[in-house]
Amino acid sequence: TRISRCLSIKTGKNENYFKIFPKTFPKGGLPSDEFLINLRTLRNEYLKLQSINHPDMLIDKIDEFSSFVNKAYSTLKSPLTRSQYFLLLNNIDLINDKENKNTNTNSNSVNLEKMKNLDSSILMEIYETCEEIENCENEKNLKILNQKNNGKIKNCELKLNELYSSFNSLTSSPNSTERKSLLKQIIKETIKLKYWFNIKKNIKEWEPGKEVVMNH
Q1: Which of 56, 88, 104, 138 is such that its CA lies 20 to 30 A from the CA of 163?
Q2: Domains of the chain
């Protein structure tokens, strides 16, 4: 039953977020499942988990469980943090910009410092967009910038969906050169998506003359 399943969920840091939402991620999460998900299905699963009030659960355990489910939901509902979380499970931490050296990651070996160096054309596009936001004089122009940026976010999401699908198709060859190349592409596309999300945040917080702040 749903209650017995939830009572069995561990809330430790090593618990896989994907596995507590089996309808959204029926195959156990990325890369087996599609990167692009049904957000309504995810939210419905989340609300059902949060509605559980079982007498066998102590108050502190209920609070711990609720906090864990909140964290899992907030992580997986966003395409950016969803991809970052998959990479984190593979010992690549884009949130804190570091690679875990303490785990055997031969099949996923990457140089994260090099991976952060995006193509010059992409970096130029990012810098130009930042300047456009800073020089924006009215909300009408800002709306146009927001629409363009939303398009870039959508393109990144579609590209990631394609990359994860290709990456999963090579599961039987974890050490292949092609799979390593795909992982590097996933990392780069996730970094790009982070920039576009940062720009979206700056657009939302726009004020005339306000400096654009980008979190790398």
Answers
A1: 104
A2: 2-77 (1.10.287), 107-204 (1.20.1280.20)
